Amino acid sequence: MRQQDPVSKLVFELSKLPGIGEKTATRLAYFILKQDTSYAQSLSESVLNAKTKIALCSNCQTFTDTDPCRICSDHTRVPALICVVEKPSDVFSIEQSSRFPGLYHVLHGTLSPLDGIGPEDLKITELLKRLETMPASSEVLLALNPSVEGEATTLYLTKLLKMLPGIKITRLAYGIPMGGRLEFTDKQTINKAIENRMEIKSQ
Q: What distance in Å separates the CA atoms of residue 10 and residue 120, rounded to the nearest whole number?
């Protein structure tokens, strides 16, 4: 197997990033090459530091450099309100709205049988353990992306949570379009979705 030259190797690695095609990866590679060596060193150190120093919060499962994370450690947050999201970037999106006062729980994905992703591959067990110690009249806001996988996961979680006493289950209002993603949704839309969240009733 022929060894790649350094530039081709850089383009190849950059093209693995989500949303980055070969043309964009090539532009990024040549941008990096035009910078001072100090920039390349700073960039590589930032990537390594993030990879080696960032872990999962033992409470909410988001990425953090402290455990528990800053949100879980914030005593001004409402402990009886947990927002369940698909990935850590969704926490950032909701926080940008500045309207959610509670805590979070990150599943790190959604149910997708076609991709071999089942309940055991998500942070569902960790969520249920948290809810065992929640105060009475707690609320779980299911804020999963309105995709086929997100809807399936919402339905699955609803069935599990309905078996827990004293838990109110709500979901974001449909201000977020079907097929849309929280990370690409403006904060005004997220505000309205949180304000108009709906309780999930038993079928």
A: 35
Residue 61 has pLDDT above 80, yes or no: yes
| Cα 170 from Cα 200, distance rounded (Å) | 5
Tokens 């590589």 sit on residue: 44
6-53 has which CATH code? Answer: 1.10.8.420
Instruction: Quote the CA–CA distance of 135 and 150 in Å, as a whole number.
Output: 27
pLDDT in tens, 1-56: 456 799 999 999 999 998 999 999 999 999 999 999 999 999 999 999 989 999 99
The distance from CA 66 to its chain's CA centroid, rounded to whole angstroms, is: 17
Distances 189 to 82, 100, 101, 129, 141 between C-alpha atoms, Å: 20, 13, 17, 31, 16
Q: Where are the domains of the chain?
A: 6-53, 63-199
Mean pLDDT of the chain: 90
What span, in angstroms and rounded, lies between the C-alpha atoms of 164 and 152?
20
Per CATH, the number for 63-199 is: 3.40.1360.10
Name which of 155, 191, 162, 156 is nearest 176 in CA terms. Answer: 191
In this prediction the pTM is 0.77
